[in-house]
Amino acid sequence: MVPSKNRLAVSCPTEEQNLIKELVALSTTEQIRKIRELPVSFEEKKHVRLVESSKGFFSKYVTGQYFALYLSFIQKCKEDVYLWVLLCCFLPLQSIRRFGYNIKSARQTLQLWQGIMKEIGGKFGSSVLNYFVLLKWLLLFNIFSFLVNFGFITIPLLVSDLSPNVSPNVSFRGLELLTGAGYFNHTIMYYGSYSNETFRGLVDYDMQLAYFFTISVYMVLCGLVLIFSMASSFKKNYALADQASNSAWQLLCSWDFSITNEKAVNQRKNNLRIQLMESLSEKAHRERQTTSEQLKQYGIYFGSWLLSTGLAVGCGASIFFLCQYEDEVRKSTYCCRNPEAETLLVPFVVSLMNMVIPLFFSLFNKFEQYSSQRKQIYALLFRNVLLRISILGVLCYYWMNMVPQKFTCWEPIVGQALYRLVIVDFIFLMLGSLFGEFLSNVIGTRIQPRLGVPEFDVARNVLEIIYAQTLAWIGIYFSPLLPVIQILKFFILFYLKKVSLTHNCQPPRRSGRAAQMKTIFIFLLFIPFFVGAVSIVAYTAWSLTPSEHCGPFRGLNSTFSVIGEWINDVDKVSSTEWVVWIYQNVIRSEVFYFLITLIILVIIYIFWQLIQGRKELIVLLRKQIANEGKDKSFLLDKLQDLQKSCPKVNKKQKKRTTVCFARFYSKFICLQFFCCCCCFCTLPNVLFFFSTQADAQLSAPLEISPTQTRWFRFYSLASSWRKRRDAAPVAFQSRRTFPPPAP
């Protein structure tokens, strides 16, 4: 009977079967090595390994013919399975993935101003692009505010059958577009035209609750969006920022890859070269500065900040006295031809201050000569923020304390004042873009070419739109439809700034970290302005008494009292006791807010400690890297000194010793090889002879075992190595050197 291996060799003479036959006789390690060395693809290697592993089992029980049929059947089944997997799984997945890519590209194409954003980023860089991104972001805020207010406050009032509180018998004259008074005072534009009734229908709709919760939910959502945006931006740009690597950042990381315009690229290169030269010269100047020069510089800083603070405080005080003068003019209306036009005096002066005073701040920056652009921008930002906060603070103080005492329906008066501020600020922004930047371009290119084309002042423009958005946040309580004006304002301002930028301005000469500046802008939008607006709205709802004759909260002690009345109505329903318990024991409990504040402070402290620990770990790791570099340098120096101080050895004596040792060592190794070969070659022959005598199949051909083959090869290799060593003994000298013998 022919063994199974011979049957397989006869029935399957293909290359694959011969390869599998060779693999069966090898060990597992040799099989893996042999399969890895095959010059075929990974799929074919996996197939060979699968067949080889299955052959070890089936070759014992299946004849060669059936085994070959089995292999062909398995291969055909695999091809069918692959085809069905391709048709059923892969192609639908590809279609779904392609459909997702198409939706993503279509969504990016349909995004507002996507093409314009790419054009601006390619010509002027990321720092200028941040302004337009923030403008678009604030526009989306106002669109959401309008949809919420119009959907939950205005539409229920319009579809109700209730008659308006005041009959609109005033004609429209056109001046109302600037003043917001007159005809607009009797429309749904302001707080006073909204009812305090509950609309009866399929579902009762309480206007007081709708007004309160709509404003509250919108402000909370805006705050959450700002907090998460600021936190994510701070984590990316400031968590591991190293202030000491400013020069390395300028050299390696300051290039703006969003720029694609050739002219802008060349200008960017020139600006970067000038900036590096200025940084090096400023560093050398600081090193050469004496103590008297430093004291003089600090004196200039102190004087500039003193003047800036005085200007901001003076502007706030002048606005307060101007508001009082406006009240006196309003009382004596008989001496004025057009009393509505007199109301434009305060917003005109406020906008004029916001446009002129920052020019003095920029002049102060030129005298101060800050060492870095970042310090210069931060100083200018802080001064402008201080100016606008002082003006808004004085106005809000006047609105919250003076106006309620002088008017019985005071909320529409505040709404009209905010409307006028928004409109006049928009007019000044348009004039600044059309004439300010245009005249600067004409002067810099034709009259005084040394000045050059003006730069686009990112910091000043960003503060302008932040200030405009703050007015909208404050006015949302007094004028629910004020976001409509803000939407039109931002929409027109976007195209106006885009045209002015492309025709009148150039990119900033000194490059700043655009991502970090974006973080600063979001921080300024949140901390001084949004928090201030929320504080004013919360103070109005919590502490001030609403008007008794107009508005949805008429007759209440405060706006927040509507929640108490709603809880009293809910308490009458038996299944809502838990709502009353939460209101009485959680919302109105000072202990709850104290515990919440304490928990937040503990969490902040824990995270602050984690941040400090990670910063210390980073400092230690940097020191460790520096110390390892010093250690390597020290060891290299010692090694070089040791090599220089070693005694020189006689070359002839060294060569003679090396040759003698090499001959002795080679003879010893050859003797060991010969003994091992004799032992291991004789023993397998004896065992093989007795095993072949005891075998029952004497007719089987004599085969040499793999062990014999391996040792024969080893013996022949040793013999050839000995012959080559005898022929050229010098080539086999050892590389090791030994010291000369002692005399």
TrEMBL record:
It comes from the Eukaryota. GO terms for molecular function: mechanosensitive monoatomic ion channel activity. It is a multi-pass membrane protein. Its main location: membrane. Keywords: Membrane, Transmembrane, Transmembrane helix. One of its GO terms (biological process) is cilium movement. Belongs to the TMC family. PANTHER family: TRANSMEMBRANE CHANNEL-LIKE PROTEIN 5, TRANSMEMBRANE CHANNEL-RELATED. This is Transmembrane channel-like protein. It comes from Poecilia reticulata.
